[in-house]
Write a structure and sequence with these properties.
About 35% of the residues lie in helices and about 25% in strands. With about 250 residues, it is an alpha/beta fold. The strands form two sheets. Strands 6-7-8-3-9-10 form a six-stranded mixed β-sheet, with helices on both faces. It is globular, with a radius of gyration of 19 Å. Bound molecules: adenosine-5'-triphosphate (ATP) and magnesium ion. Adenosine-5'-triphosphate binds next to helix 2.
Length: about 250
C-alpha cells in the first residue's frame, strides 16, 4: 500500500551523460533506468571508468548536464530551481566524496560542524552536535587538531562525520572506506548500516565485494550501463555477511 503512495526516492529513465566533442565524444552514462526506494542500501560496483562517480554526481545534484529523466522524491529535477536544488543538497543529501576535502584552516570540530551552518543551527549547538558525532567515530580526542595533523584514514573518518552531521536522508558515498584498514572500515560500515536501519537511503560505490554484504541491493555497472541488479532480503544479507569470512579463513590455510 505505502509503495503506491510514496514515490521512489530516485527514479531515472534513459539517463545519458556525454563527455567530449566530435571524435573525442564518449558516453560516461549510456542509458540507465533505475528506481531506488526509500530506505534501500545500494552498493554499486564496476571497473574503473564505468561511470560510478559520474552517476553519483548526477544523483547528488552536483551535475546538471545530462539527458534523460531524473525524479527525486517524485519530482522532476529539471523542474526544481537551482536555488532549491542547492537547499536540497545541503539539507537532504550527505556526500562522502572519493577525494574528501576538509577546510585546511578549520580544526576538525569546526570542519564537522560546517554543514550545520546552512541549517541555521547556532554555533555552540553546532559544536556540541559535531563533538557527539566525532565520538561515534572514535575521533573525539582529535577535535582540536588541524586537518594536516591527521593520518589519511583519520581524515577520511572526519569527512564521513561531516557528511552525516546534518542527518541527511540520502547518503551518497564514493568508496567511503578506500583508504581505511579493515578495523576502521568496519566502524564506517557499521555506522552506514545503522543509518540504513534508521530508514535512510544509502548509495555506496565500492571496489570491495565484502563491503557489499552490508547492502540490501548490489548493482554492477559496465561501460556506463547497469550490468546486474540483485536485491537481498535480511536473511540473505546475514548469510552473505558470514560467507566471505569463512572463505577468507580457508584461503589462509
Ligand atoms: N570531466 C570529465 N571530462 C571528460 N571525461 C570524463 C570526465 N569525468 C569523467 N570522465 C570520463 O567518464 C568515464 C566515467 O568516469 P567516472 O569517474 O564516473 O568513473 P568511475 O566508475 O567512478 O571510475 P573509478 O572507479 O576509477 O573512480 C571515464 O571514462 C572518465 O574518463
Ligand atoms: Mg569514481
Amino acid at each position: 500500500m505505502a509503495d503506491a503512495i510514496i514515490p521512489p526516492v530516485i527514479h531515472l529513465r534513459g539517463l545519458e551523460k556525454r563527455f567530449g566533442l566530435g571524435d573525442a565524444e564518449h558516453y560516461a552514462i549510456n542509458g540507465i533506468n533505475l528506481t531506488i526506494k526509500n530506505g534501500e542500501f545500494v552498493a554499486i560496483m564496476g571497473p574503473s571508468g564505468c561511470g560510478k562517480t559520474t552517476l553519483l554526481n548526477i544523483l547528488g545534484l552536483l551535475d546538471r548536464s545530462y539527458d534523460g529523466e531524473y525524479e527525486l522524491d517524485g519530482q522532476s529535477v529539471a523542474s526544481i530551481s537551482k536555488r532549491k536544488q542547492a537547499r536540497i543538497r545541503s539539507q537532504q543529501i550527505g556526500f562522502i566524496f572519493q577525494n574528501f576535502n576538509l577546510v585546511p584552516r578549520l580544526n576538525i570540530l569546526e570542519n564537522v560542524a560546517l554543514p550545520l551552518i546552512y541549517k541555521g543551527v547556532i554555533r555552540t549547538k553546532r559544536l556540541k552536535i559535531a563533538s557527539e558525532i566525532l565520538r561515534n567515530f572514535h575521533l573525539n580526542e582529535r577535535e582540536y587538531y588541524m586537518p594536516h595533523q591527521l593520518s589519511g584514514g583519520q581524515t577520511q573518518r572526519v569527512a564521513i562525520a561531516r557528511a552525516l552531521v546534518n542527518q541527511p536522508s540520502i547518503i551518497l558515498a564514493d568508496e567511503p572506506t578506500g583508504n581505511l584498514d579493515s578495523r576502521a572500515s568496519h566502524i564506517i560500515m557499521e555506522e552506514l548500516s545503522d543509518l540504513h536501519k534508521r530508514g535512510n537511503t544509502i548509495i555506496m560505490v565500492t571496489h570491495n565485494p565484502r563491503l557489499t554484504t552490508y547492502a540490501s541491493r548490489v548493482i554492477t555497472m559496465l561501460d556506463g550501463k547497469i550490468d546486474t541488479d540483485t536485491k537481498f532480503n535480511v536473511q540473505q544479507q546475514i548469510k552473505r555477511r558470514k560467507k566471505p569470512a569463512r572463505k577468507l579463513k580457508r584461503k589462509k590455510k
